[in-house]
Design brief:
heterodimer; A: about 300 residues; five-stranded parallel β-sheet; B: about 250 residues; about 30% strand; electron transport (chain B); ETF_a/b_N (chain B); ETF_b (chain B); transport (chain B)
Chain lengths: ~300, ~250
């Protein structure tokens, strides 16, 4: 089987989510990559070095610069004449594009897979991760999105794939990019960080978040996350949110501070290797999944922890 | 301008799903069902566009068993104008739902379809994008802000690194993210009024599209359980444990 993998990038670098997707795709057969973007030759060069990649298709056109689904989906559909599966990371870009591709191919997408059980059988989480479904597809072509935390990352170096330039139909004229407001941070990216420190409603305001959560994260070299309550209350930007409707993380260590542990939050972090909870309510549901729990007031315990580390 | 809002009846988000012993699925007998939370946000957004903008009529549609009419009544009580119930006893996947909705769009000719970004039962996040593809329309997914102006919709979208704004040519598809708005509660008088609002009932068969499932669910199981952890007495013990794990500090 020949798979076509969507390369997630910012027109400069390949994003980490791509590497886990390559691993998942390689379980289905020969891996080809698609680099669609604008001024993205360097991305194609880097993609060609990913271990296990057979070929890189490069579509370099202003119309693909912002990965608008209306423009890139037809390009992918045209390449699917020679491929058996389209595999994308379950990032916001992948989730935006892949279903459009699936419908154009008249196939049902399999979203957010956790494992490849056979060439047409996959597992995926449903009900906010409270159940795992095994699904078998009867479609001839497959469209799949991959949960990045469920697969190891492919090696970013070691491959030497050929780069082939492809052209699509370009701008379909349905949509246009206006602006982006991207949060800047020197900390590691939330979805690929080894340690994540998350705060919840108990932080009370954004100043406390800056004063209490961030120093601990910086000391640990960790990414900062948040519960929906903290995001809704405006303590941190939306893209910090961990959970069913935010980001799915599975770091080595997840430290939940002042987070009760609602099922929607657990859906985003319960595959973390070690979960540490600091909460003053000893009955908080978070303690049912925490490997190490500390019942304490975060306002004294967290600064003390930061100091003693 | 007419807006179409598809809504789905799902297991209430506060209920912990019980998995059937035979692994055939989640037990939905005698459990509380509600409107999918993202769909409530979609209904609310349509109502706000009617209150403050160019929208004149809001049509809500649901596909599923007869009981989905309760979900439609909720949407009518919030402020939608009329409802379409498409009944089927079969499981319909996002692709099938998108095909049925494309037929409804053909009949109703809305200029905007607002859907939730995902249903909290199957967590697919597909239907809106698929409908956009079938209609050849633009899509504004994961919307946290919608502005209509001059046959365009400016949609601010929640993307991984932050926010992105795209301009869509109408007609278009929008899918809602959590931050788009806070849905209103239906008041008792409005719940009473909703009972007399029109609801057309059709069957999936009426539309003549093939909605047979492409995926077979062979098993549904519990996720791996985490083993019970320990509670530490104080910060010093936590520090010791973290250092034992090789935490850099």
């Amino acid at each position: 089987m020949k798979t076509l993998v969507w390369v997630e990038h910012d027109n400069k670098d390949v994003k980490d989510a791509t590497l886990a997707t390559v691993t998942a795709a390689s379980k289905l057969g020969e891996v080809h990559l698609l680099v669609a973007g604008s001024g993205c030759q360097s991305v194609a060069d880097a993609a060609a070095k990913i271990a296990g990649v057979g070929k890189v298709h490069l579509a370099n056109d202003a119309a693909y610069g912002h990965a608008l689904a209306e423009n890139v989906a037809p390009l992918i559909v045209s390449l699917m004449a020679d491929h058996d599966a389209f595999v994308a990371p379950a990032t916001t870009t992948g989730k935006n594009i892949a279903p459009r591709v699936a419908a154009l191919l008249d196939v049902m997408q399999i979203s957010d897979i956790l494992s490849v059980e056979g060439e047409d059988t996959f597992t995926r989480p449903i009900y906010a991760g409270n159940a795992i479904a095994t699904v078998k597809t009867s479609d001839a072509k497959k469209v799949i999105t991959v949960r990045g935390t469920a697969f190891d990352k492919a090696e970013a170096e070691g491959g030497s794939a050929e780069i082939e330039t492809v052209a699509g139909e370009g701008d379909k004229g349905l949509s246009s990019f206006v602006k982006a407001d991207i949060a800047t941070s020197d900390r590691p990216e939330l979805t690929s960080a080894g340690i994540v420190v998350s705060g919840g409603r108990a932080l009370q305001n954004s100043e406390n978040f800056t004063k209490i959560i961030e120093p601990l994260a910086d000391k640990l070299g960790a990414a900062v996350g948040a519960s929906r309550a903290a995001v809704d209350a405006g303590y941190v930007p939306n893209d910090y949110q961990v959970g069913q409707t935010g980001k799915i993380v599975a770091p080595e260590i997840y430290i939940a501070i002042g987070i009760s542990g609602a099922i929607q939050h657990l859906a985003g972090m319960k595959d973390s290797k070690t979960i540490i909870a600091i909460n003053k309510d000893e009955d908080a549901p978070i303690f049912q999944v925490a490997d190490i729990g500390l019942v304490a007031d975060l306002y004294t315990a967290v600064p003390e922890l930061t100091e003693k580390l | 301008m007419k807006v179409l809002v598809p809504v789905k009846r799902v297991l209430d988000y506060n209920v912990k799903p019980r998995i059937k012993a035979d692994g055939s699925g989640v037990d939905l007998a005698n459990v509380k069902m509600s409107m999918n939370p993202f769909d409530e946000i979609a209904v609310e957004e349509a109502i706000r566009l009617k209150e403050n903008g160019p929208v004149e009529e809001i049509v809500v549609v649901s596909i599923g068993e007869q009981k989905a009419q309760e979900t439609l009544r909720t949407a009518l009580a919030m402020g939608a104008d009329r409802a379409i119930l498409i009944t089927t006893d079969e499981r319909v996947e996002p692709l099938g739902v998108a095909k049925l909705l494309a037929k409804v769009v053909e009949e109703e000719s809305p200029e905007l379809v607002i859907l939730g970004k995902q249903a909290i039962d199957d967590d697919n996040n597909q239907t809106g994008q698929m409908l956009a593809a079938l209609l050849g329309w633009a899509q504004g997914t994961f919307a946290s802000k919608v502005e209509l102006a001059d046959s365009k919709a400016n949609v601010t979208r929640e993307v991984d690194g932050g926010l992105e704004t795209d301009a869509l040519t109408l007609p278009a598809i929008i899918t809602t993210d959590l931050r788009l708005n806070e849905p209103r509660y239906a008041s008792l008088p409005n719940i009473m009024k909703a009972k007399s609002k029109p609801m057309a009932t059709k069957t999936a068969g009426d539309y003549g599209v093939d909605v047979a499932p492409r995926l077979t669910v062979t098993n549904v199981s519990e996720p791996p359980k985490r083993t019970a952890g320990v509670k530490v007495a104080d910060v010093d013990e936590l520090v010791a444990r973290l250092k034992a794990m090789g935490v850099p500090a």
